[in-house]
Amino acid sequence: MARLTRAEAQERNRAKVLEAARQEFAERGFRDAKIDEIADRAELTRGAVYSNFPGKRALYFAVLADLAERAPVIPAEEPALTVREALGEVARAWVTRLPLMTEDRHAPSRLGADLMPEILADETLHKPFAELMRLNAILLGLSMERLRPPKEPDGRLVRLAGAALTVLQGAGQLAAAAPGFVDSFDVIRVCERLADLDLDDRWTVAPVIPDVRETDEPWSPPIIRDPMDGAAGGVSGGASDGTADGGVDGDADGRADGRADGGAARLGRDGVVAVLGVHRLSAAEEAVRAAPPGAEVTAVVVTRTPAEVLPLARLVVAEVGTCLRQAFPKPAWPRLRIVYDESGALAAAAGVAEPGDMTEVAIRVRSGRIVLRAEGFGACHAAASQRDRP
To answer: Using an 8 Å Cβ cutoff, are 145 and 138 in contact?
Structure first.
């Protein structure tokens, strides 16, 4: 039997820790779970667990993210053709995974019951979580706009998407805290009715001027390995540089670049790559709206605390991503790929040596070269709105 390489051994141990932690959290709940018990279940040392995850909460987020990214996608029998139908299907996909009153407290659907209490308990997670929810509203809003373009040139449906997500998040919390109170059919009907609201949502670009300069540098991004299946285009999740990656990719061919079988994802095509700290994620909307038709838009998520915050990001985006894949036809999937850069390799390739939570750096890629670089607030819009010279 061939000896495993160090990277293969690390990956195997990480998988063993995740499975052991999932079992421990399911049986004992997050509060009563013990790292020593997780190590015993994985047949590893306590130190081996901590070499992969800095603490129990980071491990909990990683377990939930892993499950969310691998959730089965069951497309609607008939693809949604209207915003009303799409919101109904999104809500239906969301409520089907809520815990039932008749389920045992150790049922898999109750595994995430401690997620919100953990976020509430740590103020450093509040801003990243808020930005992740805004990013989800952007993804849902962009998809709805493909089905029903706003009447006004500067109109958008992101606020409507946010209202729907507020209903769904509230339903999820009540289903866990007040078993039997939430009526799933009512939640679906409410979300469908939201489609008729006019929230007077307008898209405006903030009047900021980032540092923009033309350049000519090689663009050699690292290979992205995506271990997650079920993302046949559109909205996907997985791992970047062997750690964590997830994305939303609405290419015209309806095909995701990051493949679940461990294949390489392509990041070398012409378009915009935005390196965004977890406090600046909503800036991705500026790149999507300003980019010319056909240009690829990639958001590289970075943070100063990647071991804990990036699993949370993977989880939050994957929860909505699964619903989008089930509810919307492929042509409506948003034109945005999201990858999570735990090692910092992607950020370094884009020229960002020390990414932080407030980072906003965007580059324009053409023919394998970086031809423009923008830094600071407004960088996404500046890089995306730059038109290629003939």
So the answer is: no
DSSP H stretches of helix in 181-283? 184-194
Q: What pTM does this model have?
A: 0.88
Q: What are the pLDDT digits (tens) for 339-360?
A: 999 999 999 999 999 999 999 9
The encoded tokens of residue 80 equal 């949604």
Which H or E run includes 300?
strand 296-302
Q: Are strands 224-225 and 264-265 parallel, antiparallel or unpaired?
A: antiparallel
The domains of the chain, with CATH numbers, are: 6-52 (1.10.10.60), 83-194 (1.10.357), 211-385 (3.40.30)
Question: Which residues of the chain register pLDDT less than 50?
Answer: 226-264
pLDDT for 4? 73
Cα distances from 327 to residues 66, 159, 181, 311, 334, in angstroms, run 21, 19, 25, 24, 13
Query: Which helix (H) or strand (E) covers residue 301, if one does?
Result: strand 296-302
Tell me the C-alpha distance between 151 and 131, whole Å.
27
Contacts of 301 (CB under 8 A, 6+ apart): 276, 278, 281, 310, 313, 338, 339, 340, 341
Is the distance from CB of 78 to CB of 126 less than 8 angstroms?
no
Ordered alpha helix ranges (H), the chain: 6-32, 35-42, 46-52, 56-69, 83-95, 115-121, 126-147, 158-177, 184-194, 284-290, 306-327, 345-349, 379-385
